[in-house]
Amino acid sequence: MWLVTQDFPNNIPFLLYLLALKTIVCQTVTKSPLPLWNWECIDEKCLPLRATQVSKLQSLETCNMLCSSMQIWPQPTGVVSLSTTAVPLRADMVQLRKVQAPSGKVHELLQDAFSLFREDLRLIENEVRGYEEWRSLSLRIVVNGSGDPRMRLDTDESYSLSLRPAAETDLAGVLIADINARSFCGARHAMETLSQLVWLDPYMGTLLILEAARIDDAPRFRYRGLLVDTAHNYFPISELMMNIDAMAASKLNTFHWHISDSQAFPLHTNSDPELANYGAHTPGDIYTPEDVRAVVRRARMRGIRVLIEIDAPAHVGHAWSWGPVRNVAWAQSYVSGIRTIMSNEDAWDLNTGSGAWYEENSGAPYNSWQRVYEHRPWVKHAAGIVEGGEATVWSALLSEGGLIARAWPRAAALAERLWTDRPEGATRPVHARLDAHRSRLIARGIRPTPMWSMWCTHNTLTCG
């Protein structure tokens, strides 16, 4: 009050003064501070240096993309040539210029996949600023192989991707992305790789894209799966959809849906509706045929097959034991020379170390992402026998909202093991790459668990 009477005999000017002061303070606090660090590439590592020249600042995200040729996840198996320069891009300036497909179904799915590609860019683009030298991106896709868009064991998932500035004078300022593949799935993988050559620069506040690239790529194994159990505990369809999005971003190609077990049968079938009526945990914990079709449709657009596992007869016992009496008969066949899908509990069970839901804890250790990544069980088997592998997520100790955090980013570590199959002993350089991929998933609305502290993201030479 003394200030009011002494310095401001009239209260109204003082109130105006306070409002003006509040405006100045709020503007000062809310305005983004200038970056303190400039990230420089030294020996293929991004190191922070004190910022001195504002006009030449480089963010960690841009440094990571320009410093190493291995920011793509999973790492390509063939030729990789990436530019060390980047240009600004807007998501609404991306277009599909040409599609050449062997069938109408492939053509339709390619257009759907392109829409998903553009949506991924929009998810990471938080605002559009007024740059004078925007580049537009034009895709040309050629699939000259199978007209069947479905993912199968014999599907050729290879692709080649070329990114370059247009040579035509009438296309000045346009980047051309040429994709060639033998299948829809291969072309979709190429679009996923292309999306990983685009990132948000927080210093500039805009998307950047590499100015040129050449990538030839193909997976090491044909089966790259993730098993998700929805019988012990129910996951809503939205959570399964998010998991499929994460699988597509990591180029896993098989969603193994363990939909029933001894404890529950949550799948409604038109032929035997009593199975779900008697077998589901609650009337709300049931997957309808429409739910299944929606999951299959979402997965197919992302180059993923859905394998629904209904164990019979033992694992439908919970439903059958309460239902009407029926005679059941089945035949057993003995097959020799079976090709193998590996899923070792000691490395790829993503539940170990989380306790036991039945009887006593098994005492099995937690399977870290490093253990998942280093595991190569096929080295002990004859060449050509192993078709691939899968990790498992059992839901006995999980509830709604827990699937993504339990599986990711460890499932991404499995994805690179099965796609690239790098030699053992290479996990330290992988830390920063997997952390960058985790950030990419977060930008797309997927919430994987942290793999280390944020301090380590900024100090990769110390951590790992």
Automatic annotation (TrEMBL):
<keyword id="KW-0326">Glycosidase</keyword>
<keyword id="KW-0325">Glycoprotein</keyword>
<feature type="signal peptide">
    <location>
        <begin position="1"/>
        <end position="27"/>
    </location>
</feature>
<dbReference type="InterPro" id="IPR029019">
    <property type="entry name" value="HEX_eukaryotic_N"/>
</dbReference>
<dbReference type="InterPro" id="IPR025705">
    <property type="entry name" value="Beta_hexosaminidase_sua/sub"/>
</dbReference>
<dbReference type="GO" id="GO:0005975">
    <property type="term" value="P:carbohydrate metabolic process"/>
</dbReference>
<dbReference type="InterPro" id="IPR017853">
    <property type="entry name" value="GH"/>
</dbReference>
<dbReference type="GO" id="GO:0030203">
    <property type="term" value="P:glycosaminoglycan metabolic process"/>
</dbReference>
<dbReference type="GO" id="GO:0016231">
    <property type="term" value="F:beta-N-acetylglucosaminidase activity"/>
</dbReference>
<feature type="domain" description="Beta-hexosaminidase eukaryotic type N-terminal">
    <location>
        <begin position="72"/>
        <end position="197"/>
    </location>
</feature>
<dbReference type="Pfam" id="PF14845">
    <property type="entry name" value="Glycohydro_20b2"/>
</dbReference>
<dbReference type="Pfam" id="PF00728">
    <property type="entry name" value="Glyco_hydro_20"/>
</dbReference>
<dbReference type="InterPro" id="IPR015883">
    <property type="entry name" value="Glyco_hydro_20_cat"/>
</dbReference>
<feature type="domain" description="Glycoside hydrolase family 20 catalytic">
    <location>
        <begin position="221"/>
        <end position="329"/>
    </location>
</feature>
<keyword id="KW-0378">Hydrolase</keyword>
<dbReference type="GO" id="GO:0005886">
    <property type="term" value="C:plasma membrane"/>
</dbReference>
<comment type="similarity">
    <text>Belongs to the glycosyl hydrolase 20 family.</text>
</comment>
<dbReference type="InterPro" id="IPR029018">
    <property type="entry name" value="Hex-like_dom2"/>
</dbReference>
<protein>
    <recommendedName>
        <fullName>beta-N-acetylhexosaminidase</fullName>
        <ecNumber>3.2.1.52</ecNumber>
    </recommendedName>
</protein>
<keyword id="KW-0732">Signal</keyword>
